[in-house]
Amino acid sequence: MVIGVTISGNHDADDIVFNLSTHVLTTDEFYVLNKGLSFVPSRESNYQEAVMDLMLFCRGVALKNMFGNNVVQKSVLRQPSTFVPPLTPSLQLFVNACEKDLLDYFHKGHTHRYHNLTSAQRQALHDLSENREIVIKMADKGGAIVVMDTTFYNNKLTHILSDSCTYVPMNPLMVKHLIDKVHQTLEQLLNDMVISKELYNFLKVEGVVTPLLKGLPKIHKSLTDPPLRPIVSGRKWVTENASIWLEITLRPYVEKMDNILLDTGGFLKALGEIDRATPKVCHLIVTLDVQSLFTVINNDYGILAIRTPLKDNGATDHNITQIITMLNLEQPQLSWTDDLPLCHLSGVGSSPNCAYSADGKGKEERAYEDGWLKFRTENDCFLYGVVNGYGGKRVADLVAQRLPAELLLGQLNANHSDADVQRVLLQAFDVVERSCLESIDDGIAEKTNLQSQLPESALRHQLASQFQKIVERLNVVEQEILGGAMAIVALILSNRLFIANVGTNRALLCKSTVDGLQVTQLSIDHTTDNEDELFRLSQLGLDAGRIKQVGAIGGQDSTRRIGDYKMKYEYSDIELLSAAKSKPITAEPEIHGGLPLDGVTGFLLLMSEGFYKALDSAHGPGQANQEIAAMVATEFAKQTTLDEVAQAVVDRVKRIHRDTFVSGAERSRFCNKHEDMTLLVRNFGYLLGEMSQCTLTPTQGGRIYPVSVPYYNNQSTSKTSVTLSLVMPSQSPMVNGSHSSCTLDEVTPTLTNQSPTATLQSTNTHTQSSSSSSDGGLFRHRPPHSLQPDEDGKVEPYVDFSEFYRLWNMDHGDQTTPVIAQ
Questions:
Q1: Which residues on adjacent β-strands are paired with residue 213?
Q2: Phi-psi region for residue 142, left (φ > 0), alpha (ψ -120 to 50) or beta?
Q3: Closest CA relative to residue 485, chosen from 398, 591, 424
């Protein structure tokens, strides 16, 4: 870059122009710029403007005449008055005379005014304004004018905006959402009587304009490569009037504070007071220059710092509440997804973690840490997810709020290809991961500061009592920055299904087919048992065999996680991971899709690790997918809402888990506790509750009825019931291969030559294999002992048909309980 200070290369003390661009300023251009950016070239006058100036003058005189020296206190909350008092006869006579003189003056053509620029200088001003290769800005300090190349200026601003810790990109939908939320917040404050109607009218900005960013060059720091000071022009922005109100309201309190230096005079006065107070003491004065002062101040800390001085300087509780409310309005902590409509084609069930005592009583060990999301947009884009948090709910909440904002606020449309959608999903997870880690920057800084105050190489419990408060605060801060989450997300766009998974949550697609219910796992568990994950870790220089042997890493089985600062940035301190060349624990999702959903009848299941592992603990590993699918199908026939379906299945798994523990059987030792459980069900035309009473099922046109069948596991001697969907063939006549109607005449179950069917089919995407129920082993094992006949030669019934008969009688009009022959 060519640097030129002035056109001659020598800078006069009176010159205020610094040319840092490659454009060489002419003498006239330099002259015009040296007059300053507030300079106004003279222009032709006209009669209308002259009369307007006259009327404004007379209005001021009339107001003075009416109110005298009584000063009316102006309120910032009111619009400027347009009141025009009546003119006195003498003042009206003056106005008439002036108007006549002005009319005569302009009628005679006296419109020429002395010009303060020559024609060459006017041309120079025009050339500068039309030159798109340069940018002209005021310097940050000193009042100088700086000319820069446009490319240089834009690159500097782009570099500032690339700081993702400070700036977050927003699309137009997000901006509109923010404006709406601020207006809604003001309305709520008015309804709660926190602010008056007058203040509300002032604070609410109509015709909002998006703020503009500009940069002021800091030439006092460098004349060759000056940094820019970012300035946001918030004129007509939604919080402009709130900022004005805060500045006026806070100024009286600020001026009373002893630690505030208003100007150089105040600084010199403070120095004199120090010298008079301690004349013989040597004082060391230190100054600090904070980089990007206004963007590094944490809003919560700023509010905390101002609350006490307000109270000490006479602010009332109501005033403090108003001020704190407006400060929070300036930095609204809003969820972008507050206004996204929920999807009613899905339901969620959940249960908190539980640990059992010896008598079988359960107790939560910590607060529920899972999260979920189920949204739809106007263009029929659907987003579902289950988030499994650990070490606190902070990360799970952040994921559940931020992921929809990165996917449903205009980023996707029906024209996007599969590759486009996968790219957007990948970017969304990356943004969420960075946001999660950046959200704890203040905590990390405080942790580092606290650690620096402790003696090195000393265990915390061995430290002296004077360090006790530091240690206590350090423990709190470390807990705040710990924690992470695993997440599985299902996105449906243009009837295509995409699955993105980080961690150990699962997605199952259950399709109704002529052969029964086909269960397909669409996700891969990222655990230390996954050979692909072990290979990835080995490529980073880690001992895969040892990792598989150890199992859990940092208390979790998952090899992919969102958040978890310790695993991402302090892994070198963990002996198992210390040899890694780069971060071994990643938040990169594994993405599958798009899978076409045309013609699919069934349901999609998203579940947390704690949910399916609770069933694994009770029944042994390997059967959870099939059993859960069967339970959901059963509840579809029994429940009337999808939330009821999901919650009933969660409650059933919870009950199975506890019963196994209480039984004292072999698997009870695996069931002393379970983690948080969450199940999300998304329906694809599968018949629900009363809707299925007179509607034919896909399998042989029959009706689905639940039957409870005993299930024995080869790893346990205990018996557990598994509910299957028993399909009863219809008795109505067939028309073109389908049943013409659903009759309710039959009172008792009567079968034709068609047989009831109960078939499960399982497919796993990562094995590319399919197996029927016989291969899956759901009823592979016989009971440990034969059933013995009683004195009448009959065996105890072991298949529970009670629910079967209840639904049958409901369908066929008989509400009596049938007598079942033994």
A1: 232
A2: left
A3: 398
